[in-house]
Amino acid sequence: MPRLARRALAAACLVAASALSTVALACTGISLTAGDGSVVTARTVEWALSDASHDHLVLFPRGHRFTGRTPEGENGHAWTGRHGFVSLMAYGEPYGPDGLNEAGLYVGMYYFPDFARFAPFEPARRSQSLSVGDYMQWMLSSFSTVAEVREHLRDVTVVNVEDPRFGGAPLPFHWKVADATGAAIIIEIIDGGQVKVHDALLGVVTNSPTYDWHLTNLRNHIGLSPAAEKPITIDGRTFSPLGAGTGLRGLPGDFTPPARFVRAVALTASARPLKDGPEAVFEAFRILDSFNLTVGSTGAPEQRAEDIVSATQITTAADLRNRVFYFHSMWDRQVRKLDLKAIDFSRIPKTVLQSGASRTQTVRELRVDEG
User: Fold this and answer.
1) Taking residues 358-369, what's their average pLDDT?
2) What is the tens place of the pLDDT at every residue in 300-321?
3) Alpha-carbon distance 259 to 257, whole Å?
4) Where are the beta strands (DSSP E) in 34-96?
5) 325-330 long-range contacts, CB within 8 A, separation 24+
């Protein structure tokens, strides 16, 4: 990245750190289960500061050696990966918002401002310490199931590591972890290092505040239903609904994390029966279309990034049972997929895959046979 662009990005991130309420840093995640037992976890990725190049992927082989970052440098927790995995990238770095490993374990990072409070760094514990990006790589490379992740969560300590690619601003995240059994959890680190684990309701996750708050807030919306309201009769006159959707009148439609959480639960809970993994993948994409953000919808004109066409930079879906990773981006909405079963993770080197990074919308022209 050119020096001027880096400075501009740093300035934009520092502005965002002080004005998060006006900048779209919103992500929405859901899960669907198909009739054949396939589990699909899907999400949108919003980062309205600049083009993060999330449509680049990185593959890590089985047996890769990792070393975590600390505020002192790359001298943190060291480990050897048991599993190969694929991850989205961010700004050319080998970690990003989403990843899937060859055992079918999914890990996603979701923005969690004002509530993430990582442990203070202690030099004496550097061998257990790692950054937010390392934490995701550690889970993807080390474990097969949510149960294994739960068992080992306290083996490492997440510390805040300033990252010049983000202007030195804090990187507050929480994580969704899911596996092919349908288990899904949300990991939140708060109050200076306390690790809180929540079962993910329908696999739904958004952003701040904490997950237990979102579950409590659902009680304000328990009257919502996909069923239409019934006609009523007043003074001998019958009044019927004007159209479909009356049972969901009052469903929050804005882009705040609480509103998106309620909307994601409602749309996921009302999803039609699905036959298999591929059908669930495309149903997930349709549901998540309800959460797409445009750059102009959530920020003042002077805060709009000029190098992206949409705040929803990428939408992903991972079929955990079949171990297939799908995505489409703001630049090209044609769905691409990577079948992890077709990759020999014992033989490949660490690989950056750019073949999915098309920057032109794919359009199929229809032709009429005049003969």
Assistant:
1) 91
2) 777 778 888 888 999 999 999 9
3) 5
4) 39-46, 57-60, 65-67, 78-80, 85-88
5) 325/86, 325/100, 326/281, 326/285, 327/55, 327/88, 327/356, 328/285, 329/54, 329/55, 329/356, 329/357, 329/358
